[in-house]
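1st attempt posting a full record on here, be nice pls
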Amino acid sequence: MKGNLYLVSTPIGNLEDITFRAIKILKEADEIICESTYKAKILLFHYQIEKPLIHLSDENQLQIVPYILEKLLSGKNLALISDAGTPVISDPGFFLVKQAIKNGVKIIPIPGPSSILTALITSGLPAQPFLFLGFLPKKPSEKRKIFKELFDFKIQKEKPTIIFFESSKRLIETLEIICQISLTTQISIAREMTKVFEEFIRGRISEVLKSLKERKEIKGEVTVVLNFFA
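the predicted structure (as tokens):
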């Protein structure tokens, strides 16, 4: 009998943001697949869970996924978690899920926190339709091409609200690129969500950019939400 692969959502910051069901599954799983063993241990220690860990990354997935599949096909129940939030979204796991489905393994989602939805509902921008870009490319020219194409993009005659992840070190550069396309874009910067230094910066992109440039540095994880014509 084949085992199950559980996709378990974990906190995006505050360790209390986890469901009872997620804790139950993590306690019952034979092993836990994680992006970072260091970060996984912080969460598991907090909830007094001791389980063998399997490290999965974009770099090792071709070697480790067959090993994981072997365990699943032998009847082991495994849980997949990311460093934060819902696994597979801009995190390792897609290749594993695809191969597990191909081999007839049952995939069971355990819903929970998502930085994408958390940033969206706090932005004050239209919640639908929305378009998630994941992490942007590092090259400015590639970013500029993406936003030029999205400026006139519509879904059912509506301009979608756009969500993406960006490094705090490249945030100002990215906002400057968007400003070159539209100075009236409405934007919300969600920084360190659910953590001690949680912050939301909202307004016209030119005003937000000016405010950010006055800071000595920008720290933490950043999720950007914008709408060209909100």
